[in-house]
Amino acid sequence: MAISIAIETPLQDDVRDLVARLNAHLLPLSPLEFQFKMTVEQMAGADTTLFVARDETGKAVGMGALKLHSAELGEVKRMFTDPEVRGKRIGSALLDAIVGLARDRGLPMLMLETGTGDGMAEAHRLYSRSGFAPRGPFLDYPDSEWSAFYEMPLKVEASA
Question: What gap in Å lies between CA 131 and CA 106, rounded to an integer?
Answer without folding.
Answer: 18
